[in-house]
Design brief:
Blueprint lengths: L1 H11 L1 E2 L8 E6 L6 E11 L3 E9 L6 E7 L7 E7 L3 H4 L2 E4 L3 E5 L4 E3 L7 E4 H19 L4 H18 L7 E6 L5 E2 L11 E6 L3 H6 L4 H16 L3 H7 L4 E6 L6 E10 L5 E8 L6 E7 L7 E8 L2 H4 L2 E4 L4 E4 L4 E3 L7 E4 H19 L9 H16 L5 E7 L5 E2 L11 E6 L3 H6 L12
Parallel strand pairs: 1-3
Antiparallel strand pairs: 2-3, 3-4, 4-5, 6-11, 6-13, 7-10, 7-12, 8-9, 8-11, 14-15, 15-16, 16-17, 18-23, 18-25, 19-22, 19-24, 20-21, 20-23
Helix pairs in contact: 3-4, 9-10
């Protein structure tokens, strides 16, 4: 029965294919005039992003219209913050997907659209600016006579936003922040690294947890459900975990049903222990796989360069931690720490995962559009180059840069030096320590 539920859930959300999408039409009450209007409901899945419920209401009697977008996926473990420098029209045309909990700041104008002040939407950067200008202009008309000092401040912001829209302001910065971790801003130069956008994760505070419906008590309860079974292991039982799979129950992040998480500790020769965690919810079909390096953050960061030119190189084991970014200089490509998440695989497996993610992203957001620079065409060329790497037709260097020092590439000549493998340790910058949360960590009198 559980498997049928999982299959049913999977079939409800359709892939984002304009030619095949089915829209459900429902007669529903108009909240404006009280007569019946029509709601069109679409449940769709955007690859590399999430599942969405898109609804559109139209009343033929009073012409009231309402469009709404709601995410249909779990709250991420951390929030996300994306800082965009707006330099040209290409940046204004970027796709943006927000949730109810997204805040938008324009740093140069000291202006913020707070969370919970607008509904989820699929739009563009320019669309957000135009809508904000319209809303602020309407507010200014209302308070012009009663609060002229506030109206003058609004005029400054409105003129500033018009300057951003017309590209007359010197490179303003817009910051998109979402406590649920479920926002998206497109990259117009994909699959290359985005030169004008910085993405970082952050830990929610108690107020943000309460805002999105996660109480402190619930977080503590969920944490205890993990800590208790793992915390009961002594040294001997940890050794036994190398040979056994440990299982514990925890609420599903998607539907809150109790599901099982499998944990396996394994030793990587000449590196360290890693913890492999896999969760599958039989009620809603949610699944996730994570690899966590053991031993915490290393004293120094790590840069690993491996030359890939033969089938033996493609078969090397590789551990890319969730704090590690990936570079392929021959392709002028860089994937940030948030891409591909943490995974333990082979170099061929990593390239395959990268291929699939880029293909899904290009199909979802750039197929059939008129984006400047031909993102779809560039992506197809890039994907062909990835295939050439997998067939050893194109030798490349793969570079892992991990400030936490928790990534690994297998040596083919242990314990001797591998001529194709270069490992360099480096001191972290203050910014890297901040991203890892080390600046706020108190270690005095820890023992």
């Amino acid at each position: 029965m559980a498997n049928s539920k999982s299959a049913e859930t999977s079939n409800v959300f359709q892939e984002l294919d304009v030619d095949q999408l089915e829209v459900n039409v429902i007669e529903s009450l108009c909240f404006s005039c009280g007569k019946n209007g029509t709601t069109r409901l679409l449940l769709t899945r955007i690859p590399y992003y999430k599942e969405l419920v898109i609804s559109s209401f139209d009343c033929p009697h009073c012409n009231y219209k309402n469009n709404q977008l709601d995410p249909a996926i779990e709250i991420k473990p951390q929030g996300i913050r994306m800082s965009l420098d707006i330099e040209n029209k290409e940046d204004l045309n970027r796709y943006v997907i927000t949730t109810d909990y997204t805040s938008i700041q324009v740093l140069d104008l000291d202006f913020e659209i707070p969370p919970m002040s607008q509904r989820s939407q699929v739009t563009t950067v320019e669309g957000i600016i135009v809508k904000t200008i319209t809303n602020l202009s309407e507010q200014k008309k209302v308070i012009d006579l009663t609060h002229p000092e506030i109206a003058s401040k609004l005029e400054v912001v409105i003129n500033g936003l018009i300057g951003i829209k017309n590209l007359t302001k010197p490179i303003p910065t817009m910051v998109f922040e979402d406590a649920t971790g479920n926002i998206f801003v497109s990259n117009p130069v994909a699959p290359l690294a985005d030169p004008r956008m910085k993405t970082e994760m952050f830990t929610r505070d108690s107020a943000q947890d309460e805002m999105i419906g996660l109480s402190a008590e619930q977080d503590a309860s969920n944490a205890q459900s993990i800590i208790k079974p793992l915390g009961t292991f002594n040294d001997a039982s940890v050794d036994n975990m190398n040979d056994e799979i440990v299982q514990f129950s925890d609420p599903c992040p998607n539907c809150q049903s109790i599901c099982e998480t499998n944990v396996k500790v394994t030793d990587i020769p000449y590196f360290k222990q890693v913890v492999i965690m896999a969760t599958l919810c039989e009620e809603c079909g949610y699944r996730t796989n994570e690899v966590k390096p053991g031993g915490g953050v290393e004293k120094q960061g790590l840069q690993i360069t491996v030359q890939v030119s033969s089938p033996e190189d493609l078969n090397r084991d590789i551990l890319k931690s969730e704090t590690c970014c990936l570079r392929i200089p021959q392709l002028d490509f860089e994937a940030g720490a948030l891409s591909l998440s943490g995974r333990f695989t082979t170099i061929e497996g990593l390239i395959t995962a990268l291929y699939e993610q880029l293909k899904d992203t290009a199909t979802a957001f750039y197929s059939g559009d008129s984006q400047p620079g031909g993102v779809l065409a560039k992506t197809e060329i890039f994907l062909e180059k990835l295939n050439n790497i997998k067939t050893c037709k194109m030798p490349v260097d793969i570079i892992l840069i991990d400030p936490a020092g928790n990534s690994y590439v297998q040596s083919l000549t242990p314990p001797e030096l591998d001529p194709k493998l270069t490992i360099v340790r480096f001191d972290r910058t203050d910014e890297q320590n901040e991203e890892l949360g080390l600046n706020d960590m108190k270690v005095d009198n820890y023992e």
